[in-house]
Amino acid sequence: MADRGSTELTNPLGALTLDQLRRRTSMKWRRFPPDVLPLWVAEMDVPLAEPVVRALTEAVALGDTGYPSGTRYADALAEFAAGRWGWRIDPDHTAIVPDVMLGVVEMLRLVTGAGDAVVVNPPVYPPFYQFIVHSGRRVVEAPLGEDGRLDPATLAPAFRDATTGGRPAAYLLCSPHNPTGTVHTRDELSAVAELAGRYGVRVIADEIHAPLVLPGAEFVPYLTVPGGENGLALLSASKAWNLAGLKAALAVAGPAAAADLARLPEEVSHGPSHLGIIAHSAALTEGGGWLTGLLSGLDANRLLLAELLAERLPAVRYRPPEGTYLAWLDCRRLGLGDDPAATFLEWGRVALNPGPEFGTGGAGHVRLNLATSPENVAEAVHRMVAALD
Ligand SMILES: Cc1ncc(COP(=O)(O)O)c(C=O)c1O
């Protein structure tokens, strides 16, 4: 893959000081008082990739801040997807959407009606619940197995319940999975597609974390598995290059869902920001080197956390994530009740995401954001230990 950013291979985690990060005005750094170490919401403590800075700076200097035009984002994703995953995306089967979650809502509107069911796999990214309910659909839970993986034994009955009486239903697949960091295998996704086909459930795959797959695992795009042809996927550069504030995402239709995506109202394309599209496109076409550096840093951080927990908090169960920059910690043996994050915040001054917000299976857990310096990972464990004294 042509990638002018491929020389930028250094780990960007730790490049910014805590003083610099505390000057940020985004949610991660402003929600809690300054004595709290914030390792919660999925923002990364990194400087932007140089090609992204360059593209944005040029656009601003030129006053290129109008409305988006053309298929630049889809072309950039198609090139990235072909190079990384061997996935051929047809830009004609894509649509720009404001962000992944609003894209999910639009996809739900295409394939379901008011009151229809949407299956999710808890513990899962809490806004899945909020956006499904906000869009007038209802949630049906199919919990992950104890091993944190997709479980046909819960999916099949959930699909059956969701489609009772022949109603349309959707399945919002999180791939890779937030918060467990599970990267679904081709076999697992093929089994999902087979089940979805059997029950007539439409699959919407949230693949926002796809570029963030760590050594040892391989991302498989849902639309490439047998039976995935009538699926819809959502992708974005926002997680992997820390661009959530620069709104843009892409919906991609499998060949048998292209007619559905073609029904997307034109006004949805008014939501994404032109600057967002410029930034995301630069990340995908020229930010491969930066991403490589990031992934090496995340790989080191997930192992560092394993070592620190084994040494200092052996009662906490932790399966290092295969993808994402999130660590899902089972703290039930600490005896801190359903919401250990409350104890860690109050007594340790470290902000982690409370497990119960992730739905069934979340109680007694916390989610820790590994996209920070190794020093902050160590400091977080130190603060968690201190909270127990
Ligand atoms: C699985 C998943 N989907 C969607 C989002 C949010 O994406 P967006 O800001 O593009 O709506 C996140 C953010 O962390 C996420 O983890």
Describe this structure in words.
Its cofactor is pyridoxal 5'-phosphate. With 389 residues, the chain is α/β, with parallel strands linked by helices. It folds into two domains: 18-50 and 288-387, Aspartate Aminotransferase, domain 1 (Alpha-Beta Complex), CATH 3.90.1150; 65-286, Aspartate Aminotransferase, domain 2. The protein is 38% helix and 13% strand. It is built from 13 helices and 13 strands. It has helices at 18-22, 27-30, 50-62, 72-85, 100-111, 127-134, 152-162, 186-199, 258-262, 274-286, 288-312, 340-348, 374-387, and strands at 37-38, 94-97, 117-120, 138-141, 169-174, 201-206, 232-235, 249-253, 317-318, 326-330, 350-351, 353-354, 365-369. The strands form three sheets. Strands 2-8-7-6-5-3-4 form a seven-stranded mixed β-sheet, with helices on both faces. It has a four-stranded antiparallel β-sheet with strand order 9-10-13-12, covered by helices on one side. Helix 8 links the parallel strand 5 and strand 6 (201-206). The longest helix has 25 residues, at 288-312. The protein starts with 17 loop residues before the first helix and ends with a helix. 51% of the residues are buried. It binds pyridoxal-5'-phosphate. Pyridoxal-5'-phosphate (PLP) binds at residues 42, 99-101, 125, 174, 178, 206, 208, 236, 238-239, 244, 249.
Give the gist of this structure.
The protein is an alpha/beta fold. It has helices at residues 18-22, 27-30, 50-62, 72-85, 100-111, 127-134, 152-162, 186-199, 258-262, 274-286, 288-312, 340-348, 374-387; strands at residues 37-38, 94-97, 117-120, 138-141, 169-174, 201-206, 232-235, 249-253, 317-318, 326-330, 350-351, 353-354, 365-369. β5 (169-174), α8 (186-199) and β6 (201-206) form a beta-alpha-beta unit.
